[in-house]
Amino acid sequence: MFDIHKIRADFPILKRKIHGHDLVFLDSGATSQKPESVIKAMDDYYRNSNANIHRGVYELSVEATRLVDEARKKVANFIGARAEETIFTRNASESINLVMYSWGRDNIKSGDAVLVSKLEHHSNLVPWQELCREKGAELRIIDVDENGMLKMSDGEEKTFSENGLKVKLGSFDQLVDDKVKLLAVTGASNVLGTTPDLAEMIKKIKVKAKAVTVLVDASQMVPHMKVDVKSMGVDFVAFSAHKMLGPTGMGVLWGKKEILSKMRPFMFGGDMIGEVKITGATWAELPSRFEAGTPDIAGIVGLGAAVDYLEKLGMDNVRQHEKELMKYALEKMTPLKEEGLITLYGPKDVEDRGGALPFNVTGIHAHDAAQILDNYGIAVRSGQHCAAPLVTSFGVPAMVRATFYVYNTTQEIDYLIEKIREIPKVFA
Ligand SMILES: Cc1ncc(COP(=O)(O)O)c(C=O)c1O
Predict the structure, then answer these.
(1) Of 50, 67, 142, 238, which sees the most CB atoms within 10 A?
(2) Residue 96 C-alpha to ligand 1 middle, in angstroms?
(3) What span, in angstroms and rounded, lies between the C-alpha atoms of 341 and 363?
(4) 67 and 174 together in one domain
(5) What are the tens digits of pLDDT across the range 68-124?
């Protein structure tokens, strides 16, 4: 049972007033709020168990190490993975960069192609632009249609070449051949909400590009729906703790053991080594090999507590709640669209989208609209959402984006719509 009032009571920040109004937080796509249990777990760690891990034989260090090991097991279980394949990073961006530097530099060569989609956040686009430029590989980008769905077949194919990087834009079928060595794709768009049919894509790509490795940017997926890395048939999955009720500065990279164990370390230093001589070193076993230096121990503990909280809610319930909110929002916003007051972007069917609702108010810049909403206590993001090529391809410089999570209600959506109607009046 999804008791929204009980859930809301767990998030201290929701009691805040903003400009004299109750906070209506509709920016969880950027970062989520934190429940009391996460804040308390991190506070408890610093108050009662603070010590460096893997370093001491004394009680506190052993305790801190145990807390990290337990949290790793929780995160691994949460995504259907093994603990040793679950690497802690600073955020999803670092997880993707780790793959780019460690796997990409050794496995992508001149003449290969890397396939991404136009839905990608800059974190899953720019690293591959840089790698392709460096290696003389081609970057291929699956285009989106006017509803923000990936173009799977037909369509126009375009090529671009700039600063030594060759880019091909087209439909999935046009771009897939045996030159594709990496598919790096989002599981859910942070802008349009689009949830590509990963299972279908992966099944298809493995037929035509037999040597393909698959990375899923699950930053907007793991917080919102059940993810089981093993049944996805992929090789790497990246996400951030801060979008799933956990702390900032914590990320996760899951990778298949047989691939991770062949990869060179990304960073060098303490904790990631096996044996060190003045002439060189050997590397630690997984996952330590990719975790150089003292980690964010409190952050790891906080992520573990966030996983506990989400497990208690049940990820199917989380997804269902967000689908209901999205269905409600799309229905309620349709009249505003028909009146010409707003433009809505993204897939029409809630089954094809996560909890992101992008829109523009006619004739008003997204930043102005968001600022007016802020005056009423509504926090929404505006701009290009770290996905400039996607946003600008809709012929606009920016979009307003409301994103929903476990603590949002239909009453908040009603309030958002009421205040969207006020926006044009400010400029009348
Ligand atoms: C889809 C997607 N990928 C990657 C990222 C990057 O996450 P982080 O800033 O935590 O590295 C984000 C953050 O907004 C995102 O939404």
Answers:
(1) 238
(2) 10
(3) 9
(4) yes
(5) 999 999 999 999 999 999 999 999 999 999 999 999 999 999 999 999 999 999 999
- Regarding whether 218 and 78 lie in a shared domain, the answer is yes
251 Cα nearest atom in ligand 1: 10
How far apart CA 366 and CA 359 sit, in angstroms, is 8
Q: Kindly state if the Cβ of 95 falls inside 6 Å of ligand 1.
A: no
* Distance of alpha carbon 255 from alpha carbon 235, whole angstroms: 6
pLDDT computed for residue 289 by the predictor: 97
Are 3 and 313 spatial neighbours (Cβ–Cβ below 8 Å)? Answer: no
Identified catalytic residue from 329, 386, 398, 400:
386
Among 312, 336, 357, give the residue marking a domain's end.
312
So what's the pLDDT on residue 2? 83
Taking each helix axis from N to C end, the angle separating 297-313 and 36-44, rounded to the nearest 10 degrees, works out to: 150
Given this model, what pLDDT does residue 1 score?
67
Which residues of the chain, if any, have pLDDT below 70?
A: 1
Q: Is 132 a catalytic residue?
A: no
* Nearest atom in ligand 1 to 186's CA: 1
Tokens representing 336 are 């505003």
In a domain, 104, yes or no: yes
Separation of first and last alpha carbons in the chain: 46
CB contact set of 262 (below 8 Å; sequence gap of 6+): none
Confidence (pLDDT) at 155: 85
Pairing of strands 356-361, 378-379: unpaired
Q: Is the C-beta atom of 219 inside 6 A of ligand 1?
A: yes
**Pairing of the two strands 180-186 and 213-217:** parallel
Tokens for 193, please give them.
Answer: 């909400």
259: which 2 tokens?
A: 């691939």
Residue 24 and residue 50 in one domain = no
* Pocket-testing residue among 220, 222, 384, 385, ligand 1, by greatest number of atoms within 8 A of Cβ: 220
| CA atoms of 290 and 264, how far apart (whole Å) | 9
Cα 123 to ligand 1 centroid, rounded to whole Å: 6
Residues 347 and 304 grouped into a single domain:
no
pTM: 0.98
Q: Is residue 235 located within the same domain as residue 372?
A: no
Domain, as residue range, for 383: 4-30+314-426
Domain count, the chain: 2
